[in-house]
Design a protein that fits this description.
The complex is a heterodimer of chains A (about 260) and B (about 280). Chain A contains eleven helices and no strands. Chain A has about 260 residues and is mainly α. Chain A has a single domain, classed as MetI-like fold (Orthogonal Bundle). In chain A, helix 3 runs antiparallel to helix 4, helix 3 runs parallel beside helix 6 and helix 6 packs across helix 8. The longest helix of chain A has about 35 residues. Chain A is globular, with a radius of gyration of 22 Å. The two termini of chain A are about 30 Å apart. The relative contact order of chain A is 0.13. Chain B is mainly α. Chain B contains 13 helices and two strands; from the N terminus they run αββαααααααααααα. Chain B has a two-stranded antiparallel sheet. In chain B, helix 2 packs across helix 13, helix 3 crosses helix 7 and helix 3 packs antiparallel against helix 10. The two termini of chain B are about 45 Å apart. Classes of the chains: A mainly alpha (about 260), B mainly alpha (about 280).
């Protein structure tokens, strides 16, 4: 093997190690029986899990996260898909402008988005709570849905829909029996990405929730109180949920880079 | 026009409403607010540019520091991401798919978790120190890992690396093999093939990756707060303080718009420079 090939392999291996090792360390310390997070690991235990699962706030914040991610996932997928449908039938230039506008929120750092929403809602005296969190999540998840569904619609063969219409199908019937089955994987994938983003968001949620907790803000509260092995488990759960959702998304949309 | 609206409006109405109510209006309000002023604990809504002047005079060093750190992260992450994507596309062979999978695995999610894990890895009695002590490499824990700019670079680099790999890989994947082989057969050196065929075709992907990482690093506040230590006063932390302890939202708004404006200028300039330097001589 040439030296340059060897160097390339070492580089790629180092990159993988850098990306994956924190995840491995996290999983390892979910089961370490020491209260501090350090080597050497002396024994394994599931006691931290039992302790976490007996806390009411944990279940409450998990429930809130489920409400937010579920509502955001359903609403943003519906709204984003509708917009993407319309964009696919627009003149390319009009579609380009509309798309650029609607995807603009992604370019704003989450801190700035969170603070603008906090100022705006308190200026209008809108009460903060899960409803404002849901609104905030809709605005930064819908660009992803629009981009993903629009990418699929631009390769969509509208001739099949037109023939269904020519054969007498109503617009709704043509949609449910022709269009929807064809693009269903893309829509499921887009919903999964939106839910992963919503579930994992800390910054925007932190500024728009007022009182109460979702899983990330619950984790933040634990972090502020100092080292506690339960933190590892909440972090691990949060990470596994988002990774599962995004892997399903890549699988159903057959994403390959 | 009316016909166009009647056809498209019902479909784009929900997403446009969300966009207007939760993005356009709040940003506009925030912009107006940045010209207000807090005078002896009272809000004055007479428009003044005072906040912007204060940002450039009193917070100039933090501004400079923020963009220095963000540039280091942007450049380092984009370079490593390019190397990794290049390896997957041209050198890895059948290992390409598993390597891409590693990047996808760590792409979405775990923002807070990742920052926290790096804190526990780099800490004084953390994973790295105790592991080094256990194998006998060091006697005393090294305190220099955590609470410094390097810790911020490592932590944010870890979070943004997968985000940066994918756009570059997407661009490299559409580079075709035939012209590369043709250039090589005609006697072009590897460096020239790389610079004149590969790079120009993926400059949009490179710029996109840099934009993502740079913006993310310039706007983040949790990372400097948790692993950055007392001397790393990045703008994100200072902005967030204006809405909490300092109670000066107008100044915070002016800071936010200043950071965004400087980001846009830097990214725009970089895009122009990239296009100029990669222009193939006729």
């Amino acid at each position: 093997m040439k030296t340059s090939d060897l160097l390339w392999r070492i580089f790629a291996a180092a990159c993988c190690l850098f990306m994956v090792s924190p995840l491995v360390i996290l999983i390892l310390f979910c089961f370490s029986d020491k209260a501090v997070i350090s080597f050497p690991i002396e024994g394994l235990t599931t006691a931290w899990w039992a302790e976490l699962f007996s806390r009411r706030e944990f279940w409450k914040s998990l429930g809130n996260s489920a409400i937010v991610a579920g509502t955001v996932g359903a609403a943003t997928t519906l709204f984003g898909t509708m917009a993407a449908f319309s964009l696919a039938r627009m003149h390319p230039r009009a579609a380009g402008v509309t798309m650029a506008l609607l995807t603009l929120p992604v370019m704003l750092p989450p801190l700035v988005l969170g603070l603008t929403l906090l100022s705006f809602f308190s200026g209008l005296e809108i009460r903060l709570g899960l409803q404002t969190v849901i609104l905030a999540h809709l605005v930064f998840t819908q660009p992803f849905v629009i981009l993903v569904v629009h990418a699929r619609m631009s390769r969509f063969d509208f001739a099949v829909v037109n023939s269904a219409r020519d054969l007498g199908a109503s617009p709704l019937r043509a949609f449910t029996s022709v269009t929807l089955p064809l693009i269903r994987p893309t829509i499921i994938g887009a919903a999964m990405i939106a839910m992963a983003l919503s579930l994992d968001d800390f910054i925007v949620t932190f500024f728009t929730i007022g009182g109460g907790n979702t899983l990330p803000t619950f984790l933040w509260g634990m972090l502020r109180k100092g080292a506690n092995p339960q933190i590892n488990i909440v972090g691990f759960l949060l990470m596994s949920l988002t990774i599962c959702a995004s892997l399903i998304a890549f699988r159903v949309t057959r994403y390959r880079g | 026009m009316m016909d166009w609206l009647r056809r498209h409006l019902p479909f784009v109405l929900p997403s446009t409403t969300i966009f207007l109510f939760c993005f356009a209006a709040p940003v506009a309000y925030f912009f107006v607010m940045s010209f207000w002023q807090i005078k002896s604990y009272r809000l004055s809504t007479d428009p003044t540019a005072h906040n912007y002047i204060e940002v450039w005079t009193d917070y100039f060093s933090s501004l400079w520091y923020t963009f220095a750190v963000a540039s280091v992260i942007g450049l380092a992450v984009t370079t490593v991401a390019f190397g990794f994507a290049y390896f997957i596309r041209f050198k890895a062979g059948r290992w390409g798919t598993p390597l891409l999978f590693v990047a996808l695995l760590t792409l979405f999610g775990g923002y807070l978790t990742k920052i926290y894990v790096w804190k526990t890895i780099l800490g004084q009695s953390g994973v790295l120190n105790t592991a080094l002590q256990a194998i006998g490499a060091i006697d005393e824990p090294i305190t220099a890992f955590l609470y410094n700019p390097l810790a911020v670079v490592i932590t944010l680099g870890h979070y943004t690396l997968p985000l940066a790999i994918l756009p570059i890989y997407g661009a490299l994947r559409s580079v075709e093999d035939v012209p590369l082989r043709g250039a090589r057969d005609l006697g072009a050196r590897p460096w020239r093939v790389f610079k004149e065929i590969v790079l120009p075709q993926c400059q949009a992907g490179i710029l996109f990756s840099f934009t993502l990482t740079f913006l993310f690093a310039a706007g983040d506040y949790v990372t400097p707060l948790l692993v950055g230590g007392p001397y790393t006063s990045m703008m994100g932390v200072i902005i967030q303080h204006q809405f909490g302890l300092r109670f000066n939202a107008p100044l915070g708004a002016a800071m936010a718009f200043t950071v965004i404006a400087v980001c846009m200028i830097i990214i725009g300039a970089l895009g122009l420079a990239l296009r100029q330097s990669l222009k193939v001589r006729a």
